[in-house]
Design brief:
By secondary structure, this protein is of the alpha/beta class. It contains six helices and five strands. It has a five-stranded parallel beta sheet with strand order 2-1-3-4-5, sandwiched between helices.
């Protein structure tokens, strides 16, 4: 079964605190290949790229052209537009909580994913929270 042995090509959008955790975890994941990271803060992207030896994407379009899935670890107010862009470009999305700032936006993302047979997963895991 090729689908079980083929690695998922993943990009990370947003490499703040949570995005860095995702970067660290994905660099050592046997089921996924971290293709690169993107952040609007180019200095932060450079710092994380050097720390974890990964590529930097220059735009969301570049992320979409090289991946089949993304981790969205940006401020909540940006989740809807970023996730919608990737879903419309046939990219699976893992979105840090909450999924969106508005309920109706979450419903729209879910509908797009259903229509395109894509996966949306929301990161509700607290396993990596230092308080836990």
């Amino acid at each position: 079964m090729e689908s079980l042995t083929k690695k998922i090509k993943i990009g990370i959008v947003g490499v703040g605190h949570l995005g860095e955790i995702h970067t660290k975890l994905l660099t050592n994941n046997n089921l996924a290949e971290l293709i690169g990271i993107y952040d609007t803060n180019s200095q932060r992207a450079k710092e994380i790229s050097e720390k974890y030896y990964c590529n930097i994407f220059e735009s969301l379009n570049e992320v979409a052209n090289h991946t089949n899935a993304v981790v969205i670890a940006t401020p909540t107010i940006t989740h809807f537009e970023i996730a919608k862009y990737f879903l419309q470009n046939n990219i699976h999305c893992f979105i840090e909580k909450p999924i969106t700032a508005r309920y109706k936006d979450a419903l729209e993302l879910i509908e797009i994913a259903k229509q395109k047979n894509l996966i949306i997963q929301v990161g509700h895991v607290e396993r990596f929270n230092p308080a836990i």
